[in-house]
Amino acid sequence: MIEAILLSLAGLVGLAIGGELLVRGAVGIAQKLGVSTLFTGLVIVGFATSMPEMVASVQASLAGSPEIAWGNIVGSNLANTLLILGVSALVMPIALSGSGRRDALIALAVTVLLWGLVIAQIGAVWVGIVMLFGIAAYIVFSYLKPESGTEEDLDDAPSNGVLAAALFIGGLIILVLGGDALVTGAIALATIFEVPETVIGLTVVAVGTSLPELAASIAAALRGKSGLALGNVVGSNIYNILLIGGTTMTIAPFALPAELGGLQMALLTASAAGLLALLWFARSIGRALGAVLLTAFAANVVLVFA
Asked: Which stretches of the chain score pLDDT less than 50?
């Protein structure tokens, strides 16, 4: 058991460090390419901070544990919207400028799609391929038709292109090693404590792989960069379902765990709809609402283990 715990902890540390390096490298590369900071927050940072989920889910699928893979995807999106936005708002209220509505609507649509796949119990390679085409189309569309919004300086990114590339590659290597350790440890812990692998994916793996998003969003909130904090969460939610879900389905074309179709998907859909509503009708996510989001996340974790 001690070995499993140490492996899990080492994996979490590796994901946190690798994710941080990957995010900094990705943002530096984006600046060199001259893309907008709004696009960077939504697409580049969202993509980079989703890599721990990608690594963990792919490795879980290859290890014959798709329950961990899909639990990680659903749990990570719940962590993004409830835990990460909640903590970020407690640190510094998140201003809502009105931008991001289109992408929040896309996030809600793909969440409903995921729920439909759970209910229909569909598992096929072609579904995964369609999802991958979907994320490719989203990236191209976001680049060609960026939403208008306030531009924010990314002053903490490396200005040297070679350094940015080195950080990106080094972070990716650490992520792979950390993801392998975390999945191995998580499967062992699930076996030892006789906890369903889906539950481990929803909690331990999901929170662990969401650490880069948490670090990036808190850093953005502290610097008053609300667009990056929010774009990171929304973009990551879209990537988790289309890119990571599509890859997982292509590698391991099994039906999604039926136990996800109840409370977890209902809460995930409600959180996606709630975020869209906030972008339409609210001016900020204040500390009080942040506390509500954090409480909802904690309550769900308790219910999962109950």
From this structure: 150-151
